[in-house]
């Protein structure tokens, strides 16, 4: 499937020139003359990359770039700013607005194609990682719990603030007592999620006291991570009622 590229430039000659360069490489190319048109096209087509002119009437490229980066966070949507301004302050303003790369007018065809290809490859890598993280999140939710019922009037619900997280709440009944363990692995994302998963697997539900359980858990985690050059740690609370 052809990658979709949106060109946003108020100058028709610039749009046609860029369109010719890119269409010749078998990209699916869309054009807009201002930010308003670009918004409509983006919601309709879902582009893979945006080529954005800086100097436009109304909303300029810096402002629209910030809008794109705010609305299209996942997966990564690259924005290449095209500008006749070659000074340091303009580039810094572009970076602050979230731009991923720059092209200076007049645009060189070879430079354009190289930067477009590199940005599309980066987007593909981000998209693959994002898909893997979403899958990991579903696995983690199913492994930990999703809306599991403790009793007729109690429920637990787990939802990480990111794709995956390092928090764990485990509950169980043992010989008439109810146990609960709350754990928070240091850090964020996949590494913390893996540590939290290890905690779940290492819980000894035959322990006689919360203190014994935590002592055994600490020993098991230290053994598991003994050869790792890491500062990871887990904060745990265990309650028996």
Task: Give structural notes.
There is one protein chain. The protein has 241 residues and is of the alpha/beta class. It folds into 2 domains: 4-136, Response regulator (Rossmann fold, 3-Layer(aba) Sandwich); 145-240, PPM-type phosphatase domain (Phosphatase 2c, domain 1, 4-Layer Sandwich), CATH 3.60.40. The protein is built from 7 helices and 10 strands. The protein has helices at residues 12-23, 35-45, 61-71, 88-96, 109-144, 189-202, 210-224, and strands at 4-8, 28-32, 49-53, 79-83, 101-104, 149-151, 154-155, 167-174, 177-185, 234-240. The strands form 3 sheets. A 5-stranded parallel beta sheet has the order 2-1-3-4-5, with helices on both faces. A 3-stranded antiparallel beta sheet has the order 8-9-10. Helix 5 runs parallel beside helix 6. The protein starts with a strand and ends with a strand. The mean pLDDT is 85.
Annotated CATH architecture of the largest domain: 3-Layer(aba) Sandwich
Helix content: 40-55%
Distance between the termini: 58 Å
CATH class of the largest domain: Alpha Beta
The structural domain count equals 2
What would you call the structural class? alpha/beta
Q: Give the radius of gyration.
A: 26 Å
CATH topology of the largest domain: Rossmann fold
Number of strand elements: 10
Largest beta sheet, briefly?
A: 5 strands, parallel
Question: What is the averaged pLDDT score?
Answer: 85
Number of helices: 7
**Broad shape:** elongated
Name the beta content range: 15-25%
Q: How are helices and strands ordered from N to C?
A: EHEHEHEHEHEEEEHHE
Unreliable runs, pLDDT <50, ≥5 residues?
A: none
């Amino acid at each position: 499937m052809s990658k979709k590229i949106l060109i946003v430039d108020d100058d028709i000659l610039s749009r046609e020139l860029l369109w010719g360069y890119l269409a010749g490489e078998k990209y699916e190319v869309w054009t807009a003359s201002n930010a308003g048109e670009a918004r409509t096209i983006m919601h309709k087509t879902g582009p893979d990359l945006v080529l954005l002119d800086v100097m436009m009437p109304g909303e300029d490229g810096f402002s629209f770039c910030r809008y794109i980066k705010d609305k299209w966070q996942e997966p990564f949507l690259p924005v290449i700013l095209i500008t006749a301004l070659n000074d340091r302050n303009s580039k810094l303003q572009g970076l602050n607005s979230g731009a991923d790369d720059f092209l200076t007018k007049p645009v060189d065809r070879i430079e354009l194609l190289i930067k477009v290809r590199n940005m599309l490859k980066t987007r593909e890598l981000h998209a693959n990682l994002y898909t893997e993280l979403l899958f990991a999140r579903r696995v983690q939710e199913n492994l930990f719990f999703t809306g599991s019922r403790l009793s007729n009037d109690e429920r637990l619900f787990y939802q990480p603030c990111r794709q995956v997280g390092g928090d764990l709440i485990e509950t169980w009944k043992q010989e008439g007592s109810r146990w609960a363990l709350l754990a928070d692995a240091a850090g964020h994302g996949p590494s913390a999620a893996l540590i939290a998963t290890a905690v779940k697997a290492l819980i000894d539900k035959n322990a006689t006291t919360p203190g014994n359980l935590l002592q055994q858990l600490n020993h098991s985690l230290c053994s598991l991570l003994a050869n790792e050059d890491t500062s990871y740690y887990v904060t745990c609370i265990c309650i028996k009622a």
